[in-house]
Amino acid sequence: MKTKLLLFVCLLLAGNQLLAQSTYQWKTATSGGYTYKYVTNDPSKTRFYTLKNGLTAILSPNNKEPNIQWRMSVRAGSNTDPKTNTGLAHYLEHLLFKGTDKFGTNNWTKEKPLLDKIDALYEKYNKTTDPAQRKEIYKEIDKTSGEASNFSIANEYDKMIAGIGGNSSNAHTWYEETVYNEDFPSNAIDKFLAIQSERFRKPIFRIFHTELEAVYEEKNRGLDDDGNKLDEAMMDKLFPTHNYGQQTTIGTIEHLKNPSLVEIKKYYDKYYVPNNMAIIFAGDFNPDEMIKKIDKSFSYMAPKPVVLYNPVPEKPLTSIQKVDVYGPSAEAVEIYYRGYPENSQQSLLLELIRSILTNGKAGLIDINLNKQQKVLRASASYQQMKDYGVFNLSAQPKQGQTLEQVAKLLLEQVDLLKQGNFDDELLKAIVANRKLSFLQAFDSNNNRAENLSTEFILNRGTKWDKNLGEIEATSKITKAQVVAFAKEFFKDNYVIGYKHKGEDKNVIKVEKPAITPINANANLTSPFVKSILEAPVKPIAPKFLDYQKDIAYGKVGIADLLATKNNDNSIFRMTYRLNIGANNYKLLQYASSYLPYLGTDKYSAEDLSKQFYNIACTYNLSVGADNTTISISGLQENFDKAVSLVEHILAHVKVNEKALEELKSSILKGRENAKLNKGQIMNALTSYAQYGSLNPFNNVLTNEEVKNIKASDLVDLLHNLTNYEHIITYYGPKDLASIAPEIKKQHLLPKEFTPAAPAKAYTYTTQDANKVYFANYDMVQSEIRWLRNTGVYNKNDAASIQVFNSYFGGGMGSIVFQTIRESKALAYSTFATYVSPDRADKQYSMVAYVGSQADKMTDAVNGMNELLNVLPKSEKSFDGAKANVVNNIETARITKDAVIYSYLADKKLGYDHDSRIDLYRELKPINFDSIKAFHGEKIANKPYTYLIVASDKRVKLEDMQKFGTVTTLTLEQLFGY
User: Fold this and answer.
1) 884 near 806, Cβ under 8 Å?
2) I need a labelling partner for 105 at 20 to 30 A (CA). Which of 50, 76, 158, 366 fits?
3) What sign results for the dihedral spanned by CA atoms 491, 492, 495, 499?
């Protein structure tokens, strides 16, 4: 049978390769003195260059807005970590933000011997086993690190990126990749290349012990994540020899405690070589000019032979492997099957099977489990890596259901697949929906850069033609081929993971070492950074919206119609935006949840899902606090069909008592699960602090009221939905004059709108004394949030707020991040922001956050309080923060239906024009004294409400009482049920 399957796959692969070649073929061209490869009919017009030193340069020009997305992708990750130093690639990723011998230092000559001493001390520390001796060595590391910090300048990289207008400085490490990403304005190309060229020339691993502490915090956050623990345990079973299962990205606790800077440097020298890296740009540039600049900037890199991870193939799984994980979060079932290498025909089939099982509308799991509410929720996915993939079935149980019962239901869907018990038309519909997604895929520079980076990691970009031709290849796969493959693939060869609710008795944490805060030297600037920031650039003129010209205004009956034209493709998006929400009708959100399970007098709920999927269209009913939106989207050629279906549903949807009883059960189970989610608990605390004991979060139906919901009440709401006041928005290829009659024909309106019930109004709290709201949760870390309501919206504060947020707590170069994480190593995650309301009658709030180890909570709170009360001054950081805000306005291009949404958002704040016009003008006079005065008036030395989620076994009441009067809130008080 194996021979037959191999022959079938080979024949299918050969046929699809021939097909792909007919549309997408590799070609070679020369332009501007450089030769490159490209794929015919590639909508992204991407060029693939290989420079003389082996560096791959991938350029995807897109001049729709003056911004560029960048990736530096390295084909090395946790798979290539030494067995004795797991987590090393991830450490290195963190250290690539610390500078070189030219930036990040104010005196390299004096700093270097101290860093050399630190390297040696860590090697000694790693070889020492006696706890007392290790403690003494670490004291010396801490002392020497403090001395070295007198000659370092923290976060100079982030200051440069902010100073040139960058917005999303970040990086990630995974199994076989480490990827660095940025986005920046297109007038800063020369500056950006100078920064990156220097960054990778000779990185210096300074300020290491505080960054090490940040990685410890990251590890502890992972230990608090039940989903992460389950995944690691299952991957260990699925890949008993491959590093996908045997080495985690973050590394083992033992290895984290014994880092080696020597080994990290060896890793950098071994894998960060041009023939193992790709530099990727997607955005507004001339590729002929860009490649010359890249070549000049990175020609210093010397190639080296690279031996990547080349594992022995895994033996087939021949039995079911079981994993049990315990923790405080909700119960779940995961089933993992081991997939195939990237770009293999088997992987193409598995991705197709994923869509057959779940596509959000018409898959077997969608229809048989989710639509019929046989589980709380279920899905399938396929994650592709280089050597193998992971096919995943996932579900959460509903009330009264065991994990074993859920697993049985999931596997029954696989059996239906193997029997061919799915609609023949489903394969065509999957292809149609993928074509729609393909049309939108290249709109975003970020999507382009991400896809190209993934391709480089998986196959050095050599199979970009296959990537583009995947839809064509999929369209030729028959149902018989899917069934034959499924019968061979899905056997008793999986790992099943049960996530149980309960105490994890094996939980441990990475203990914090004693760390003395370092000197960040935030007011100093190295000559290299000064030269970058002072270099002139050609300014980019902002483009503001003219709401009278950029939006077409009309009427459909008594409803206003706002339209913008899609000149790029045949996609439409339309909404009915109602001025009612959950604050008007508590039942409305439950009606929205009920709707997907209802049929009409002509169609079942399952038929409706299939019809939308077959025409590659979607619709959704979304209920907010003050607004409700009905959205419809798809190809314009199917506009009439999609709108007609939506109108039919709203007018003719029928009561289904059984569906309502199942929904009630799901709601009650979902509520139980919400109480097990620390993020939801923090959200509940925040609403409680902002509005008091009755607030938008907990003012919901009680459990008893949920049980008494009547189907007729929900259906009546749905039937009358568009009788309430609403506007219509349209974005698509037709102009207003053409589309208005089509909408009018389908969207029947009353002579006058039905008056809405008055919205529930909530009263903002006044913080007149420090207080603490505490919620107990079984976790390693502590989560602390500060909240203070600061007054009603005022247009005149907009410019100060933008610059203050950018300077104070808006990113890796901000004062909060530099101090809390970089200097004091108190947290992995921290931020602070002055939150603006979305409506002129609402209030601002000051929100700050630290996620730290529980035993560092007091230090973390004190650290944040110092910043809230005294605003540190750094002229260079301020200049960069302000420049970043200005750059964002100058380079932003609001297009498509975002024009309409911008207009509606401005209107709620009292503007009849683009609010950015005023903001841009008012930014010019803003200086440090401006935001210092703002900080002093609104933030400093004011009472705050502290919101703490932590384990009462790990934090002490007396410590929390130092912050303010402590109130322990029950989950019933927080959630309202």
Assistant:
1) yes
2) 76
3) positive
Look up residue 721 and give its DSSP letter.
G
pLDDT tens string 688-742: 999 999 999 999 999 999 999 999 999 999 999 999 999 999 999 999 999 999 9
Strand partners, 18: none
How far apart (Å, rounded) are the C-alpha atoms in residues 819 and 582? Answer: 41
What distances in angstroms separate CA 749 from CA 643, 723, 753, one per listed residue?
14, 7, 8
Tell me the C-alpha distance between 937 and 942, whole Å.
9
DSSP string, 880-938: HHHHHHHHHHHH----TTHHHHHHHHHHHTT-SS-HHHHHHHHHTT--HHHHHHHHHHH
Cβ proximity of 883 and 162 under 8 Å: yes
H or E stretch including 246? helix 243-246
- Give residue-wise pLDDT tens across range 154-163: 989 998 998 8
pTM of the predicted model as reported, rounded to 2 decimal places: 0.92
Using the predicted structure, report yes or no on whether residue 13 has a pLDDT greater than 50.
Answer: no
Neighbours of 898 (CB within 10 A): 14
Maximum CA pair distance of the chain?
A: 85
Rg, C-alpha atoms of the chain = 29
Per the structure block, which two tokens stand in for 514?
């004693």
- Tell me the per-residue pLDDT of 183-202, one tens digit each, with 9 for 90 and over: 999 999 999 999 999 999 99
Taking CA atoms, 425 is separated from 380, 633, 648, in Å, by: 20, 21, 23
Place of tokens 């020492």: 128
CA-based nearest residue to 190, from 104, 68, 274, 96: 68
Q: Cα 184 vs. chain centroid, distance in angstroms?
A: 19
d(Cα 402, Cα 332) in Å, to the nearest integer? 10
Q: With CA atoms as reference, report the closest residue to 854 among 781, 786, 785, 959.
A: 781
User: Each residue of 320-331: pLDDT tens digit?
Assistant: 999 999 999 999
Beta strand ranges found along 304-431 (DSSP E): 321-327, 332-338, 377-384, 389-396
Closest CA to 932 of 800, 831, 798: 800
Residue-by-residue DSSP string for 65-89: SSEEEEEEEES-SGGGS-TTSTTHH
Q: With CA atoms as reference, report the closest residue to 961 among 771, 778, 682.
A: 771
Residue appearing with tokens 């963190």? 94
Query: Which residue, 496, 205, 186, is CA-closest to 324?
Result: 496
| CA separation for the pair 290, 47 (Å, rounded) | 11
Polymer length of the chain: 977
565, 636 contact by CB (below 8 A): no
For residues 569 and 858, what is the distance between their CA atoms, to the nearest angstrom?
Answer: 56
Give the other-Cβ count within 10 Å of 425's Cβ.
13
* Rounded alpha-carbon distances, angstroms, from residue 95 to 106, 161, 210, 374: 18, 16, 11, 48
